[in-house]
Amino acid sequence: MNELEHSILGTADRDAVWSQLCPEAVECFAFEVGVGALFGLVVRGGNRVALNVHRTATAERLGAMQQVQEHLWRYGFPCPRPLGVRGRGTLEEWRDDGERRDAHEPKARRALAQLLVRLTRLTRGVHPAVDLPPFFPRPDGPLWPAPHTALIDFDATAAGAEWIDEIAGAAKAQRDQGGGDIVIAHHDWTAKHVRWAGITPTVVYGWGSLSIGFETVFAGEAAAQFTRDVEPLPSVDEALMFIADYERARTSPFTREEQATASAAAVYARAYATRCTHALGGDTELLSLPAYAAALLQ
Q1: CA 77, CA 56: separation in Å to the nearest integer?
Q2: How far is CA 155 from CA 143, 146, 167, in A?
């Protein structure tokens, strides 16, 4: 077992994790690891379920997350039906219908933007049992959130990253001056979490990323990363087109101030990706952060 798996599961015995959290399971047919760990399990009776093990979330927060997911599922949103919380794990139905698609394609980009608008509208009026905090820091918070993986240490890799911090600070300051509607949405809105039938999304994953915040910030974050895992990340033009697609799907466009907030949120998200790349020893030049920020920050 590698370091990433151990940081999430806390043990070298992978089978012990799923058998403890889902004792009705009789077989594990799939396993993936990323921000969390995913087990595909067959339970008694033959049904297949997904067990997602989250690195840090509390059972209370996971319960609130599944409350929102249940609401979305009941209203026909293409998410798996939630099946309960098991400690640091969540169960949901196994859904693998559809294909992966390159979101650099304009039709896929527009569909992702429209689906995000639908998500923010369906979650209005939902009141989770506990707060769903934003992933990125609040205005009075630190510059960076806790890294999404134990393999990244921002403090230990601060040397040489000062230029990234400077751009992130400017983006965060502009982002935090804005506003807009407060919504519940998915802060990791990327094509890697979506499967498709043609141009129709069939299933959306990654519901551990539900949080509450400004609609403009969710739109900007998505604009910065919606093509992941197909390189490269969205260009400046693609980011602006995603935000425009999102605005067209709303009942009204963003104000100029809200557009500036969305653009700043996109720059901050790109800065976060650059900071992570720096911490892991990657090539930060490939993310073109200075040019990206120069084009989007107002």
Answers
A1: 27
A2: 12, 11, 17
**Single pTM value for the model:** 0.95
Let me know whether 164 and 194 are in one domain: yes
- 116 and 186 both lie in a single domain: yes
Q: What is the pLDDT of residues 117-148, one digit of tens each?
A: 999 999 998 989 888 887 777 778 899 998 88
pLDDT band at 223 (very low <50, low <70, confident <90, very high): very high
Q: What are the distances in angstroms from CA 233 to CA 15, 34, 52, 147, 218?
A: 35, 18, 26, 19, 17
Q: What is the pLDDT of residues 210-221, one digit of tens each?
A: 999 999 999 999
Give the span between the Cα atoms of 87 and 85, in whole angstroms: 6
Q: Which residues contact 39 (CB under 8 A, 6 or more apart)?
A: 17, 18, 22, 28, 30, 31, 50, 51, 52, 53
SS3 99: strand
Same domain, 79 and 192: no
Place of tokens 């379920």: 49
DSSP-assigned beta bridge partners for residue 30: 40
What number of other Cβ atoms are within 10 A of residue 79's Cβ? Answer: 24
Q: At 13, phi and psi to the nearest 5? A: -100, 90
